[in-house]
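User: Just a sanity check before I run the rest of the batch. Below are the structure tokens for the first item. I only need the designed sequence back.
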């Protein structure tokens, strides 16, 4: 995805997240499901498997992602682009909680910083700064 679109997505995500309270309450009834996921750690195939087995987020399919989206795996950036896009499309059905890997120092140690800089050589620092701002 072109850097301009990534930055635009990050800007819109940040704007949306700033409007939310620090604590999200997700409720369901007997006729609805909420899928809770955690620790994707840059494994895009895991996210695709979750969506394959449970369906894509939609007005009738809610998700809670409990952080640790990035680091370790090679496709953390793609996971965030997908999750942030679904968050903006379905803000009442997609909930993202920050994990300890959504931290600047952890990103340096476990690979997200390097991944962003390799994928976006020219605009990498700006994109990374915006990701940290969203986190």
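Assistant: Here's the designed sequence for the first item:
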């Amino acid at each position: 995805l072109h850097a301009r679109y990534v930055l635009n997505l990050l800007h819109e995500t940040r704007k949306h997240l700033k409007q939310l309270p620090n604590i999200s309450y997700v409720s369901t009834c007997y006729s609805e499901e909420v899928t809770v996921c955690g620790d994707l750690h840059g494994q895009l195939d895991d996210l695709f498997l979750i969506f394959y087995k449970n369906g894509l987020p939609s007005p009738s399919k809610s998700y809670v992602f409990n952080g640790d989206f990035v680091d370790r795996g090679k496709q953390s950036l793609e996971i965030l682009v997908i999750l942030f896009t679904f968050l903006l499309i379905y803000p009442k059905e997609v909930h993202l909680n920050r994990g300890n890997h959504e931290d600047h120092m952890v990103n340096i140690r476990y690979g997200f910083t390097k991944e962003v800089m390799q994928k976006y050589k020219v605009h990498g620092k700006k994109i990374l700064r915006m990701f940290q701002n969203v986190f």
